[in-house]
Amino acid sequence: MKYTVSLTMVLLLLLTGCEGGKDKPLSGTVSISSELFGTGPYYSYGFSFSGADKVSTLDLPGPDVTVLAGDIHDDGVVLIESFLGANTLEPPFALMGEYGTETAAVAAFNALTSAGTPQWKELGAPLRNYQVWVIRTREGKYAKIVTTDVTLNKTVTPALSSCTFRWAYQPDGSSTFPGS
Known about the structure:
Elements: H1 2-20, E1 27-33, E2 45-48, E3 53-56, E4 66-74, E5 77-85, E6 93-98, H2 102-111, E7 131-136, E8 142-153, E9 160-170
Antiparallel strand pairs: 1-9, 2-3, 4-5, 6-7, 7-8, 8-9
């Protein structure tokens, strides 16, 4: 009996230790959209860099970044655009570059090793294919993304947007990124 209890305890510790000790990935690829779910209150899924997963906008804490579609005012002209949003106290987005091809954008993303001192913006707008962005999370940590597929459907109300991006997260709070 004593050995059965001991063996059971060891197996439980190993099983919970294996799952609980798993580190979250610090990079990857994800797709998120502005599609609303539920019957009210409506929610969508954004992305949490620290959790390395999609997170509902109803969750606490919520996602670090969401993709949205809506009116953007540009020099008196109202445009329906895709954009990145975040629930932070300080402007969280910095556009580091726009590129003509996915290959060039991914190369710039991989070469980006520091957030530097960019011009921060409230919204990641307008959101396009082959852009490299740095994102400052509500915890004051940094992530970088490269957009590889941005879509906008203006024929429905509300307009729908989706975005696929590669990402890398710096969990220690510094503004430097390891080589990708």
